[in-house]
Design a protein that fits this description.
Distance between the termini: 19 Å
Radius of gyration: 13 Å
Largest sheet: 2 strands, antiparallel
Order of helices and strands: EEHHH
Number of strands: 2
Oligomer: single chain
Strand order of the largest sheet: 1-2
């Protein structure tokens, strides 16, 4: 599985992760002109994740946030179902 600096996969879910790669993407969106298709897809995933976190109950939000704080690294060997969307 290729390393993705923007997302963390766990419990069968894929979530965007705050960090340097996302900070650089934010800068590009503000100052670098026309975004690439890839950048637009990451931005769309961030907006979707934000909407989902707002709708979730606190217990689920806390669980997801605790995982996201670990960073974008994943372990495909220990979780073969990772990467699929809920």
């Amino acid at each position: 599985m290729a390393s993705d600096p923007f997302h963390r996969n766990f419990d069968g879910m894929c979530w965007p992760v705050p960090g340097m790669a996302l900070n650089e993407l934010e800068w590009r969106q503000r100052y670098a002109g026309e975004p690439s298709t890839s950048d637009r897809m990451v931005v769309a995933s961030v907006l979707s994740a934000y909407s989902e976190l707002v709708r979730l109950p606190q217990r689920q939000r806390n669980k997801i946030i605790a995982e996201l704080r670990k960073g974008p690294a994943t372990s495909a060997k220990s979780h073969p179902q990772e990467g699929r969307m809920p």
